[in-house]
Structure formats: C-alpha cells, structure tokens
Design a protein that fits this description.
Elements lengths: L12 E6 L2 E7 L2 H7 L1 H7 L7 E4 L15 H5 L6
Antiparallel strand pairs: 1-2, 2-3
Length: about 80
C-alpha cells in the first residue's frame, strides 16, 4: 500500500490490511515517540518526527476507546491508547 503511494494519517481507516475488517491509524503522542521508538529517535536526533499506530477492531468492528469497545481491546493495543 505504501509502495503504491497510499499514505495514512491520524484517524484514517483502511480495509486493505486485515481481511474482513477495517483498521485505524492513530498518531502517537510526542512523549511516546522518544520513549517507545528509541531507534527512530536516535536516527532523527533533534528533528521532530511522527509515527502512527495501527489499531484493530474487535469482531463487531468496535475500535479501542469506542463506546462499545471491550476493555481488553485497549489493553492489548495500549501503546498510545
């Protein structure tokens, strides 16, 4: 998808990654970038960079943090949620 020129941003969804389900992309907060993406932080140094976390829904299509999403869904994808 990226090789084909598709780019994703915060809040975008895609049905091309996980068969039968949409996935969602969420921006990582700046404080997590340096603590969780250490190698990227070393590479970029003082320059700012961004990263997205792909999150997947439960079997009913509920995304983490949504009104009907079960607690376990956020627990299993908790990097930035």
């Amino acid at each position: 998808m990226l090789a084909e020129g598709n780019a994703y941003g915060d809040g975008d969804t895609s049905g091309d990654i996980l068969e039968g389900f949409d996935v969602q992309f969420r921006a990582l907060p700046q404080d997590l970038l340096t603590s969780s993406l250490v190698q990227a932080s070393v590479f970029y140094g003082e320059r700012q960079f961004s990263a997205l976390q792909l999150v997947w829904p439960d079997g009913d299509g509920n995304f983490p943090g949504g009104e009907y999403a079960p607690a376990w869904l956020s627990d299993r994808q908790a990097l930035s949620l």
